[in-house]
Design brief:
This protein is mainly α. Helix content is 62%, strand content 2%. It has 15 helices and two strands. Helix 4 packs across helix 6 and helix 6 packs across helix 8. The longest helix is centred in the N-terminal third of the chain and has 33 residues. It is globular, with a radius of gyration of 30 Å.
Length: 324
């Protein structure tokens, strides 16, 4: 068993010891009595987020009838901050997992006895983590780290995914600065920043750089199109309740299907912007995917939406869309 290292002894190793003797001892004692050391109050270090620390700061108890109502007191505010610290700790661990996976892969530490593959390593050591998710974690950890340094706290994973295209066209540091400015603008405006708001700004910024070949000009175009002004406050975020709201109408299944179609379109657009997948994709695969998208478009263009005694002509709808 290897001998445990004495860090205190190692820190003082090499420091010359004063010569022994009664005269020296008396002199040192006299100086100490003449100049006593000032009393210093002990400073508590920021405790690491461990299970023992959590058990002390977040006891497993319920609110009582006396404490379940009214504004939070100072002690409850500290408990809430500690709970948020647990969330931040989990988000930090997320991007650190991406960093660890990159170390293992780049140095081929996954090989074990020399025969284990990367996929086998993910199956055995990471509970069947998919290669696509492992790739995404490795791809985004630097951006997540940059945001945490700039903002002072980690960002949610949903925000990270939507901010990635901005970082790919500028840099991780520029994306982190822009995100931090957006976050604080929303905080000052009393509006919670959500992933959809990040995505709208990224799409507008990326669209502004379409066709710009020079990297410096492209970065300038992307950052110039980025806006930090908060969106209008949503009623749900202000906890407003409308006094007179119209009675809910039965949901039209066509509208429900269109919402699904809109979600699918956003997913396809996001997938086509994946630079790593674009690099690895073969030409015939790209053609096959493009043909499938066009085929779906042709099928959708022939669908007729009917009402009572009326049928909407798809050709008229198409014409209106073209004019818009």
């Amino acid at each position: 068993m290897p001998k445990r290292r004495d860090f205190k002894a190692a820190a003082t190793k090499g420091t010359p010891s004063p010569p022994a003797g009664p005269a020296v001892t008396a002199a040192v004692t006299a100086v100490a009595d003449e100049h006593p050391e000032p009393a210093v109050s002990p400073q508590l270090r920021a405790q690491p987020f461990t299970m023992e620390h959590w058990g002390l700061t977040l006891p497993d108890v319920d609110a009582t009838e006396a404490t379940a109502h009214g504004p939070l007191d100072e002690h409850e505010q500290r408990q809430l901050a500690e709970a948020h610290r647990a969330v931040d700790n989990a988000r930090t661990a997320r991007w650190m997992l991406g960093f660890a996976l990159e170390v293992v892969r780049r140095r081929r530490l996954y090989r074990g006895d020399g025969t284990r593959t990367w996929q086998q390593y993910l199956d055995q050591e990471h509970d069947h983590l998919s290669t696509s998710e492992a790739d995404r974690l490795q791809k985004t950890w630097r951006l997540a780290q940059a945001v945490q340094k700039e903002l002072g706290r980690p960002l949610p994973d949903s925000h990270l995914r939507r901010l990635q295209p901005f970082a790919e066209r500028t840099s991780d540091q520029e994306a982190a600065r822009s995100y931090a400015a957006l976050y604080w603008a929303h905080q000052e405006g009393g509006v919670r920043l959500v992933a959809a708001q990040v995505q709208r700004r990224v799409k507008a910024a990326v669209a502004a750089a379409q066709g710009v070949s020079d990297p410096a000009e492209r970065t300038h175009a992307v950052t110039a199109a980025w806006t930090t002004a908060p969106d209008a406050t949503m009623p749900a975020q202000r906890h407003e309740v409308t006094q007179e709201s119209p009675a809910p109408t039965p949901s039209d299944p066509v509208d429900a299907a269109l919402r699904l179609l809109h979600t699918a379109r956003e997913a396809i657009e996001s997938a086509t912007e994946d630079r790593q997948a674009r690099t690895a994709r073969a030409g015939e695969d790209a053609q096959r995917q493009q043909d499938a998208i066009r085929r779906i478009g042709r099928i959708l263009s022939k669908i007729k939406v009917e009402a009572v005694g009326e049928v909407i002509d798809p050709s008229v709808v198409d014409a209106e869309l073209v004019e818009d």
